[in-house]
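Good day; I would like, with your permission, to put a structural problem before you. A protein sequence and the structure tokens that stand for its backbone fold form the material at issue. I would ask you to consider whether the tokens describe a fold that such a sequence might reasonably adopt. I set the record out below, with my sincere thanks for your time.
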Amino acid sequence: MSPNKTPLATVNEEHGGKEKLVEKIMGLLERGEEEKDDLKRRLLAASNRKLLRLAGIAELVKQKYGGKEKLAEAVGQAYGRIKDKDYVRRLGEYTPGRLLDMVRSRGAAAPAAGVAPRAAKPAAKKAAKPAAKKTAKPAKGAAKGKAKKS
């Protein structure tokens, strides 16, 4: 989206209208158990900016990673937990936008690039705490905040 164009202008120029953009997004998104008509109704009610963002995320996931499952595996590899099948399965339940944020935050590349898992940090030795210094006790009158008057 250009900073000089409104989302409506971008949708009309690049996609030929909101209905065509919604049809394109529906082809890229996984519906799950939601009915096609319900999803279309929800997407038509969404803002143009949100639709453009959804289309961008869906296209990126499809082109760079090949699908949501491959993206979840890339996140698991970026976090060094690719062998933990339960973790990768749980990642598969996240939204594509969240998975993209996770993989970007680790600076991971596409799965074909082979991201090496992070090395474990060596255990830090606990430093011995120095003994607390004893301070002199204040005088009896000063401890209570009372001063002698002369």
